[in-house]
Design a protein that fits this description.
The complex is a heterodimer. Helices cover 30% and strands 31% of the residues of chain A. Chain A is an alpha+beta fold. By secondary structure, chain B is of the alpha+beta class. Chain B has helices at residues 42-53, 58-69, 75-90; strands spanning 9-12, 17-20, 27-31, 36-40, 56-57, 94-97. The chains are: A alpha+beta, B alpha+beta. The interface between A and B is medium-sized, with 16 and 14 residues.
Chain lengths: 286, 98
């Protein structure tokens, strides 16, 4: 068995095992500052293995093995680092049923979290990356992880995934941030990972209460609108975007219902990042 | 008022969890049996509440809702009620009984 590296990511201990140079490079570059030790075992064991036989050398492949199972088809080994991130997403979405997981970006300001639920393409990762550049603490660009007992939101800071035009937009705004190598995913989209801010990693064990639920939608050329969203509809958004509230049954649902009750809820449409960041700062200040 | 082919009563599903917030009229209902979540109008909630107290026919419900809304049980209201009942039936929130 290839030796492993244990990484503490929020509430998770993840063991990563791989002989592929791309994975090691990804860890060195994107997980600087994370608690990391040689070792095996943890909540998730993720192995990124080189392809076998011909696929070790010709059109080299990477195979993802998670806790002994292979939930993915082989992928190009050039995507080895990204494979690790996709594997972690799969692990959390499929297995982290101790908490409620919602497909959302989350940032924190003044002890209150801003939850941005929405499907891929809604602009939440771009917004999340920009918020962290403006001083918000990164909780996650992928998951809102909620404790069903306390209602608190837990940080799971990891590299932020950016696609296509968002790459240049965020890079131009934050030239000092470390970006990984650019690649193309299986759907042909350009993507890159952005190292999470050191402060967010250092404070990864500090949960926070909910402040706002904002449903974002990027709409090119449209002015920024931030309008109150009826809480009943905000609750529906959260349940729609939740991977697992139903595993927890009524407890999961009532947790999300209570979270919405304590939040200010908005629907956001934007195209101009400077404008929308200003509006969100005003929202947080009020 | 009742359609000859639709003379039956409605019974409410059990164990539903209803949520309402002060910022609007809509209700969210969670059905633990199916795991589904539905967004309903306040009128639908009134209808369900009436049914939950005791099984009701369409005619009973039309009269009760008309009284609740302080309006007559006219054709538009009856049509709305029947559409709402059909939707709640499809969602598993109520079911017809003899």
């Amino acid at each position: 068995m290839v030796p492993g590296v244990q990484i503490t990511i929020g509430p998770f201990l993840v063991c990563v095992r791989s002989e592929l140079a791309g994975v090691r490079k990804h860890l060195d570059q994107m997980y600087e500052g994370f608690p990391m030790h040689e070792g095996t075992g943890g909540h998730f064991d993720i192995a990124v293995e080189a392809g076998r036989g011909l696929h070790r050398w010709v059109r080299p492949q990477a195979n993802i093995v998670i806790n002994g199972a292979r939930p993915f088809l082989p992928l190009p080994s050039a995507l080895a680092g990204a494979c690790l991130e996709w594997a972690m997403n799969w692990c959390i979405g499929k297995n982290a049923h101790r908490w409620i997981a919602v497909h959302a970006a989350v940032a924190e300001r003044g002890g209150r979290t801003l939850i941005l639920p929405g499907p891929s393409g809604s602009g939440k990762s771009t917004l999340c990356a920009s918020l962290t550049g403006a001083g918000w603490r990164l909780f996650s660009d992928e998951f809102a992880l909620i404790d069903p007992e306390s209602g608190w939101v837990l940080p799971v800071p990891r590299p932020i995934s950016l696609k296509n035009r968002a790459i240049e937009i965020v890079r131009d705004r934050q030239p000092s941030v470390v970006f990984g190598p650019e690649g193309h995913d299986t759907e042909g989209a350009r993507f890159v990972h952005m190292r999470p801010p050191g402060e967010s990693v250092r404070r990864a064990s500090e949960p926070a209460s909910v402040g706002w639920v904002v449903v974002p939608r990027f709409a090119a050329g449209r002015p920024t609108t931030l309008e109150p969203l009826p809480k009943a509809r905000a609750l529906l958004q959260l349940t729609d975007q939740s991977f697992n509230y139903n595993y927890l049954g009524a407890r999961g649902y009532t947790c999300l219902a209570a979270l919405v009750r304590h939040a200010e809820c908005f629907r956001l449409e934007y195209s101009d990042l400077d404008d929308v960041l200003g509006r969100l700062e005003d929202m947080a200040a009020n | 008022m009742t359609h000859p082919a639709r003379v039956h009563r409605w019974k409410a599903a059990n164990d539903l969890i209803w949520t309402h917030y002060d910022d609007g009229d809509e209700w969210v209902v969670y059905d633990p049996a199916s795991g589904d979540v539905h967004l309903l109008t306040s009128s639908a909630r009134v209808l369900w509440s009436l049914i939950s107290k005791s099984p009701r026919s369409d005619a009973d419900l039309a009269g009760a809702l008309a009284s609740e809304l302080a309006r007559s049980a006219d054709e538009p209201l009856i049509s709305m009620i029947q559409e709402t009942l059909a939707a709640m039936d499809r969602a598993g929130l109520i079911r017809p009984i003899p």
